[in-house]
Amino acid sequence: MNRLFWIIMAAIGLALVLLMLNNSAGQTFGIANDDFAQLVWVGTLAAVIGAFVLRSGRPLGTLAKQFGGWFLIVLALVAGYQYRYELQDFANRVSAGLVPGSPLALGQDDGRATVTLQKALNGHFEARILINDAPVRVVVDTGASSTVLTAADAQAAGFDPAGLRYTVPVSTANGVTQAAGARASQIAIGGIVRNDMQILIAAPGALGQSLLGMNFISTLSGFDVRGDRMILRD
């Protein structure tokens, strides 16, 4: 085994010398240097595998099954890497169906983050966002001038609803109610992040679900609705 090791190392060393000497020519033995280097690599791998097979003493059928299993594993890993973005989109589609408000897709457009949302069964576009790192489920409401949190969501995001003054009138589906002004250190949806945002916190029991309003949406470079999908662009 030690003899074979030194033979392989000598062959690799000779190949490297030939590649360096023929760098300007671009060819070695009439073969492009890149192809020659790949041939040396494949030959080295084949020699190592062949030596293992010969020295193992195991039946060829057993070895073939083992190598076949490892080959399929490597093939699956390579395929997973090559199709990683398609698999990510598939996973997002599944999570969007299982967890309401999960982004249907996350991506980039001209270097800017994009988030694609799927319309919920209630006909609204919902999103799971982070407010001060706390997950909050909101309705994306282009008719709301401000982002408004329910008292429960505000408490989860680190605010104290009991210590706020509800003096700001807010129109909701149930009529006009009172809300309190506050500032969120960060609001994030996918890769779209905004810091130090003005928000409103509805009085306890006054709002059924939090709203992501135009004070956040207007900071985007654009958004559009395509059928059952809404695309937000940073």
From TrEMBL:
Pfam families found in the cross-reference section: gag-asp_proteas
InterPro entries cross-referenced by the UniProt entry: Aspartic_peptidase_AS (IPR001969), Clan_AA_Asp_peptidase_C (IPR011969), Peptidase_aspartic_dom_sf (IPR021109), Retropepsin-like_bacterial (IPR034122)
Residues annotated as transmembrane: 36-55, 67-85
One of the record's GO molecular function terms: peptidase activity
Organism domain of life: Bacteria
Annotated NCBIfam families: clan_AA_DTGA (TIGR02281)
Name this protein carries in UniProt: TIGR02281 family clan AA aspartic protease
